[in-house]
Design brief:
Shape: globular
Oligomer: single chain
Distance between the termini: 101 Å
Largest sheet: none
């Protein structure tokens, strides 16, 4: 931490606490969608990933906000920080899992896409964990940060850079599937999956990109400025992708049912008309 730049540290504290407000606000805005589309349904991979991505950020953001405002003094904060980082990792992994499942569904449930994305994601995850557990020392001289200060290292930009690269791969795969398999399709379901997927993943990718720039370029007192906003963005947008997908499926099924019912009534009307018309002939 640069002692001469307390503004960066204060800004990082404010942004992390503000992210908690955004998370709480979004929860109450979308809780009706959660009740409608997830509650009472069977537990599976999708619901488990959703639950983790939805609720793990609350614990992570609360703990980060607490750490930001607490005066640690001579206390050892390493176990607490390790727990916070673990929760953040868990929330982001669950959110990325939802995005992978969305791409898998968009591909027509082709296992090749699922295997490739899961394998690639596993490589990204292992590399990120290694870099976080054993950060690279750049041997940059400068003021030494006091212990337990809300400040990261330059090397923490690498995990976020890998995350950004993984999100670019998911976006590219979605675009490829759109033009490879759904070029002539204009159904509401396909449009929702494609539009929401690209829009939300672009937002997630952008905050990862900004996070990398902040950590790598700005003074280290700013390095934790997007810590909780990163996990909040993942949680909020991944949840909305799932909600919109379920709503679009319901709408698509309703339209198909109405069309089927309309065709049935039309068929019955025609059948009834032919019978009536045939009665005078029999007389």
């Amino acid at each position: 931490m640069s002692v001469s730049d307390p503004f960066g540290l204060q800004l990082a504290k404010y942004s992390n606490v503000a992210a908690l407000s955004v998370l709480i606000y979004d929860y109450f805005v979308t809780v009706h969608s959660e009740v409608q589309w997830t509650w009472g349904r069977k537990w599976g991979i999708i619901r488990t990933a959703f639950t983790i991505s939805r609720y793990a950020p609350f614990a992570g953001v609360l703990m980060t906000s607490y750490s930001a405002v607490k005066a640690w003094g001579a206390q050892d904060c390493s176990p607490f920080n390790d727990a916070v980082n673990g929760i953040h990792f868990l929330g982001i992994i669950a959110s990325e899992g939802l995005l992978i499942c969305r791409v898998y569904a968009f591909s027509g449930n082709k296992k090749a896409y699922l295997i490739i994305l899961l394998s690639f994601g596993l490589v990204i995850l292992v590399t990120s964990v290694i870099l976080s557990a054993a950060p690279i020392n750049f041997n940059i001289s400068g003021p030494v940060a006091p212990p337990c200060v809300l400040e990261g290292a330059r090397s923490s930009a690498f995990p976020y850079g890998l995350l950004m690269f993984f999100e670019i791969v998911i976006m590219s795969t979605t675009v490829f599937l759109r033009y490879q398999h759904y070029l002539g399709s204009h159904t509401a379901l396909v449009k929702t999956i494609y539009r929401d997927g690209l829009l939300y993943m672009f937002c997630i990718m952008m905050i990862s990109t900004v996070n990398v720039i902040v950590i790598a370029v700005l003074p280290l007192s700013y390095s934790e400025m997007l810590n909780t906003p990163q996990i909040v963005t993942h949680s909020v947008l991944a949840s909305r992708i799932l909600f919109n997908l379920q709503a679009s499926k319901e709408t698509s099924q309703s339209v198909d049912s109405m069309e089927l019912l309309s065709c049935s009534h039309e068929f019955q009307a025609r059948s009834g008309g032919s019978v009536i018309a045939g009665q005078p002939d029999e007389a």
